[in-house]
Design a protein that fits this description.
Blueprint lengths: L17 H6 L1 H4 L5 H10 L1 E5 L5 H11 L3 E6 L23 H12 L4 E6 L7 H5 L4 E4 L4 H14 L3 E7 L2 E7 L8 H4 L12 H4 L5 H18 L9 E5 L4 E5 L22 H4 L17 E2 L1 H10 L4 E4 L3 H6 L6 E2 L5 H4 L9 E4 L4 H12 L5 E4 L2 H8 L8
Helix pairs in contact: 4-5, 4-10
Length: 396
């Protein structure tokens, strides 16, 4: 059997009851796995960052496979909009902490698995403590600060980081492991994109079944590394296009000048990843121009009730506008703003609106550049409006 990432002392003393033998019998009769491979699986400890779209298939299939210890890191609660893709959670779980419903579902799948809950953000302060006890880190998050942090901490601890990302109809999967000869995340993406340029799934959407495909690929890679079989995705990145049902393979290379995994790294410890990625977006970073004025949903409601003259400009897409809107607002999609600025009067007070406040912040910034001085960003977007002002609006 090939070399596992686990030390042999970790699995040599592992034993199975008869009911476990029956449960994993389809593994045991495979010459590539056998009882020894299943011992390696049972001895393994895997940390899952996020129990959402990607974390759901990862958690379920690793539990079904018999991973001995699964750590779950999440801080969010289940929302009805999650249920289209996050199959660890059900309708009855809406409002519950995700790690609690995930634990219950995983234990239902396989009561032999130890589930360790880490109800927290994955931050520079706790990343090392959280990741160190585990053999593999699987990144199922959807924000750039956590991706860079999970990459860096795995490089420092010499642990494989199994990466997955999804957006609309496209997904990617690879294994970052410089200590095993491959590149790290920073080799591919030395710098994060400007804040607000890359929309999240909450803004751009995601096909509900897509996380199942990418998450299963992440789970497969974890099992291969643990058992020591097959050809891993170290040094290979798989891109999947669901619209064309087409897989493409790329071979990213290590950057000899990578600030984290090169022979002469310039980053040798965790940093402030929020600052590195330019977050918060509405902040006034030095040299980034004037701050972006914001108004909260409740403040906006109070001003409208007072009869203040405000122009409400919604920069979402027309199909989002059809779902819900703030009464009295007008639609100018962000992509059309540059060509339609003439429709706006710089003398009027304007509040720009999107779903969560990122695209609208970009709109305000662009108008500031051409001299608009009475523009405000609706903090939290229309999501805060339906949460704090009008819960009768349809949510999406």
């Amino acid at each position: 059997m090939s070399k596992s990432i686990l030390d042999p002392s970790r699995w040599e003393a592992v034993e199975f009851r008869n009911d476990e033998i029956a449960r994993y019998s389809r593994h045991l009769i495979m010459p590539e796995i056998t009882l020894e491979g299943q011992c390696r699986i049972k001895a393994a400890r895997v940390l899952c960052l996020g129990v959402g779209g990607l974390g759901s298939p990862v958690g379920l299939y690793l539990a079904a496979a018999g991973i001995g210890t699964i750590g779950l890191v999440d801080f969010d609660v289940v929302d009805s909009s999650n249920l289209q893709r996050q199959i660890l959670h059900g309708t009855k779980d809406v409002g519950r902490k995700k790690i609690h419903s995930a634990r219950d579902r995983i234990k239902e799948m396989n009561p032999n698995v130890q589930v360790v809950l880490h109800e927290a953000f994955f931050t520079s302060e706790n990343a090392r403590e959280l990741a160190e006890p585990y053999d593999i880190v699987i990144d199922g998050t959807d924000n750039f600060p956590t991706r860079y942090l999970s990459n860096d901490i795995c490089v420092f601890l010499k642990k494989p980081n199994i990466y997955g990302s999804i957006f609309r109809f496209d997904g990617q999967c690879t294994v970052f492991a410089p200590h095993l000869g491959g590149p790290c995340y920073r080799c591919l993406y030395p710098e994060p994109p400007p804040p607000g340029v890359v929309p999240s799934c909450a803004e751009g959407g995601v096909m509900g079944v897509l996380p199942g495909i990418i998450g299963v690929m992440q789970a497969i890679e974890a099992i291969k590394l643990i058992v020591g079989i097959g050809e891993s995705l170290i040094g290979r990145l798989i891109h999947f296009d669901a619209m064309k049902m087409k897989f493409r393979e790329f071979q990213p290379r290590r950057d000899p000048k990578c600030p984290v995994c090169s022979e002469n790294p310039t980053i040798t410890g965790v940093i402030d990843y929020e600052q590195f990625c330019g977050i918060p977006q509405a902040g006034a970073a030095e040299g980034a121009g004037p701050p972006i004025p914001e108004i909260s949903a409740t403040e906006l409601k109070a001003r409208l009730d007072r009869g203040d003259r405000l122009v409400l400009v919604d920069v979402r897409e027309p199909f989002e506008w059809e779902i819900n809107r703030i009464p009295g607002s007008r639609l100018i999609p962000l992509g059309e703003l540059a060509s339609r600025m003439s429709e706006l009067d710089p003398a009027e007070e304007m509040v720009f609106i999107c779903k969560i406040g990122l695209r609208s912040a970009t709109a305000v910034r662009e108008l500031q550049k051409v001299g608009f001085k009475k523009t405000f960003n609706l903090a939290g977007g229309i999501r805060d409006w339906w949460d704090q002002v009008d819960p009768t609006l349809p949510k999406y």
